[in-house]
Design a protein that fits this description.
Blueprint lengths: L5 E4 L5 E3 L5 E4 L6 E4 L2 E7 L9 E9 L4 E8 L6 E3 L6 E6 L5 E5 L2 E7 L1 E10 L7 E11 L3 E11 L7 H11 L10 E9 L6 E8 L6 E7 L5 E2 L3 E6 L2 E10 L1 H5 L4 E8 L2 E8 L2
Antiparallel strand pairs: 1-2, 3-4, 4-5, 5-6, 6-12, 7-11, 7-13, 8-13, 9-12, 10-11, 13-14, 15-16, 16-20, 17-21, 18-20, 19-20, 21-22
C-alpha cells in the first residue's frame, strides 16, 4: 500500500495530503476490491451480461470502525465524493444516485454522510448495447474520524467477465431502497416558505404524513455557495400536517434572504422523498 505524503496538518482536523492511493486485493472474480488504510472500495454489478441498456452497478465504500465519508452536500466541512468514469469503455453515461445520509454533529460542526458502509447505486447506459461495458472508476473521496483524509481509489470491472457477487448485490439493493424518490406514498411536502419574522431567518417546511409516530429528518440543499441550514425543529402539528422550523445559519443567503430554489429531502423511517422547490 502506498500512502500520500503529508503536506500540512490543519487546525480543522484535516490531514492535507496528496490523496492516499490504494492497491488491489482480489481480482480473481473479475470484481476488483481495493484497500485503503480506512476501508475498502469495490464496484458491484447487478446486471452482468452487458447487453442490457439498463445496467445497474454500485460503488461500495466500506469503512473501518469510527470512520465516516460524505454525502454530495457534506455540511459544515468535508469533501463530497467525485466520480470520474472517463477511462471506461463503451460507456454512454453513468448516473450516480445518492442514498439518504445521516446527520453527525461533532466538535461543534454538523456533517452529512455515512458510517460503516455506503453503496452509491449507478445507472449505466452503454454506447452499444450489444457490446460489454468496461467500467473504470477513478473515485476521489474523503474519510474522517479524529482527522480527515482525502483518498483516491481506482477500480474497474467488465460486464462480461465479472462473477456474481451475491453479498455485494444485497448491499446494492439495500442502498437503492434508501435513494429518495420524487413521489412517496404517505409522505409529501405541503409547504416551503421563508420565515423572516425574527432576527434569525429560518425556513418553514410543512410535511404531510400518514405516520404520526415515526420521527422525521429533513436535509436542505441550496445551489448558492456558503448556504447553511440547521437541524429541523418541529413547531406545530395539525391533523396530518407537521410544521418544522429550520434555521438559516450562514452565508449570503441568511443576509439577503433571497433563498431561491432549494432541494428538500425528507426522511421518515424507510420513506425518503426529495424535491426541488422554490421558496415562497
Amino acid at each position: 500500500m502506498k500512502s500520500g505524503a503529508m503536506i500540512a496538518f490543519a487546525a480543522t482536523g484535516w490531514l492535507l495530503t496528496t490523496p492516499e492511493t490504494v492497491n488491489a486485493l482480489d481480482t480473481r472474480s473479475g470484481l476488483e476490491t481495493v484497500a485503503t488504510q480506512h476501508g475498502t472500495v469495490k464496484l458491484i454489478l447487478a446486471e452482468r451480461d452487458g447487453k442490457s441498456a439498463d445496467i445497474t452497478a454500485g460503488v461500495q465504500i466500506k469503512l473501518k470502525p469510527g470512520w465516516k465519508t460524505y454525502w454530495r452536500t457534506p455540511g459544515d466541512s468535508g469533501i463530497p465524493p467525485s466520480f470520474d468514469w472517463s477511462r471506461s469503455r463503451n460507456l454512454e453515461k453513468a448516473e450516480i444516485k445518492w442514498p439518504v445520509p445521516q446527520r453527525f454533529t461533532e466538535h461543534g460542526e454538523t456533517i452529512y454522510g455515512y458510517r460503516d458502509e455506503v453503496v452509491f447505486p449507478v445507472s449505466v447506459w452503454p454506447k452499444n448495447s450489444d457490446e460489454p461495458v468496461k467500467l473504470s472508476l477513478s473515485l476521489f473521496y474523503a474519510v474522517c474520524r479524529e482527522i480527515c483524509v482525502p483518498v483516491q481509489a481506482d477500480v474497474q470491472v467488465e460486464t462480461d467477465a465479472a462473477g456474481r457477487d451475491n453479498e455485494g448485490i444485497d448491499s446494492l439493493r439495500r442502498f437503492e431502497a434508501m435513494v429518495p424518490q420524487a413521489q412517496v406514498d404517505g409522505l409529501d411536502i405541503a409547504g416551503l416558505a421563508l420565515d423572516d419574522s425574527t432576527a434569525e431567518p429560518a425556513l418553514k417546511v410543512t410535511l404531510k404524513t400518514i405516520d404520526a409516530d415515526t420521527p422525521i429528518e429533513i436535509f436542505v440543499e441550496s445551489e448558492r455557495s456558503g448556504a447553511g441550514f440547521g437541524a429541523p425543529e418541529q413547531v406545530a402539528t395539525k391533523q396530518d400536517l407537521r410544521e418544522f422550523r429550520i434555521p438559516i445559519e450562514a452565508g449570503a443567503l441568511a443576509r439577503d434572504k433571497a433563498v431561491g430554489a432549494l432541494t428538500i429531502t425528507a426522511v421518515q423511517g424507510k420513506k425518503a422523498l426529495a424535491r426541488k422547490l422554490q421558496v415562497e
